[in-house]
Amino acid sequence: MATKKAATKPAAKKTTKTAATKAPATKKTAVKTAKKTYVDEVYERVVAQNPAQPEFHQAVKEVLESLRVVIEADEEKFRRDGLLERLTTPERQLLFRVPWVDDKGQVQVNNGYRVQFNSAIGPYKGGLRLHPSVNLGIIKFLGFEQIFKNSLTGLPIGGGKGGSDFDPKGKSDREVMAFCQSFITELYKYIGADTDVPAGDIGTGAREIGFMYGQYKRIRNVYEGVLTGKGLSYGGSLARTEATGYGLLYFTEEMLKTNGIALAGKTCAVSGSGNVAIYAIQKAEQLGAKVVTCSDSTGWIYDPEGIDVALLKEVKEVKRARLTEYAAARPSAQYHDKKTEGTNQWEIKVDVALPCATQNELNLDDAKKLVANGVIAVAEGANMPTTLEATKYFQDNGIIFAPGKASNAGGVATSALEMSQNSERLSWTFEEVDAKLKNIMVNIFHNADEAAKKYAKPGDYVAGANIAGFLKVVDAMQAQGIV
Ligand code: NDP
Ligand code: 2IT
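^ inputs. structure came back:
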């Protein structure tokens, strides 16, 4: 099997049965007798060379398992070209000090990161995460995912990600500005409209992007689209704020439709209550579904009458407050404290689950509860919110499962549309951007669906998305020589 030659021939089902799920345990017994496959070699190399980066290992494992079928069809060529070593090694990793002064006059020092992972199909593109949990492994997992996601959009953007362990929560606007200015004072050397274009992610919203843009312009003295997610008065795109959440629902609706199911009338559970979650809830409700949960890092809401988006926006976007305030203002809502109760929103009976908070927030136990309660579909709004075990459990139980790198690609796709508008110095209407976003999401779904049918098994959108994203990147990498 490992020496199979026909590069174009779709592989047998056998090789893809393990997609995204199997630990290399089964192969260990085979190691003594059979030659290690290139995919296994590279995965072991990634683990050995990147110690203590479990999220990065997890993201690489999922992708490599999906690619096994494509790689093993022409294994010797890929191995000779070091293709997978290059794919899993960032082109450049920047680590820097971010000193700033807090409101008490105390100097604070944070770690800054930018991982420029792959520029085969366009300038590095990806968000900046500001959260105390940020470390190099987290940024590498996100940057790696971004390569395939950005490829799936069909737009010319490479993969990158950055951020800091700075926590914007509880900081004054002046402190956030001081941090953002210091962060950009180092990062500006490495980014640019045609080089690397950062954007928002957890903890980085319109306020942070504004401060960063101002500092970049001040230092470089150029007015260019170096960041996306900008405010509308200085080069931002209409619909970028809504894009990830809206795109998730456009994707989900198309995926359900293709499986003969209507989204309208369905009950949904959303996790998170940030940018992605809020606009996912809004679009789900516009499309006739009812969203009964949302969450933040401390608690979750069950609102059987459906989440009131206007109230949620007021609590989260304006007041930057906790969900207890939502519950206090909404008689139909129950608030559950995660720590004291040890519960989360996945125990509520729903048709569709939309994890929109953070990585590994939906584990095997959660998946079992959702399946027992009759969930039909799971679509990831966050990056890698479902553990590998939970993903396998969903797939094994016939649950329709959309991987984040396909279903949450609407945010970065609309960022690329913002780059286009900046380049042509024009602004498109909301309707124009929204229509393009919808079209992109529908196309991503069908590309993943087609690739799943051709290379893996019908309905395995994890394998389909990974393979479809990979094919364009690998074509560009091979054309550009050994770089
Ligand atoms: P926000 O900062 O706007 O919101 C994040 C939400 O998730 C908040 O409700 C937050 O709660 C919760 N959350 C964050 N970290 C944790 C944690 N460790 N445990 C529990 N809850 C947590 O971020 P976004 O909505 O922008 O991002 C959400 C997810 O979507 C991330 O995985 C991000 O990478 C992904 N994504 C974002 C895109 C974008 O365009 N913004 C595009 C594609 C994917 P609290 O406020 O209490 O911390
Ligand atoms: O994970 C993501 O795709 C994002 N945070 C958005 C990146 C972007 O460049 O808009």
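The chain has 20 helices and twelve strands. Residues 430-455 form the longest helix (26 residues).
thumbs up if we can close this ticket
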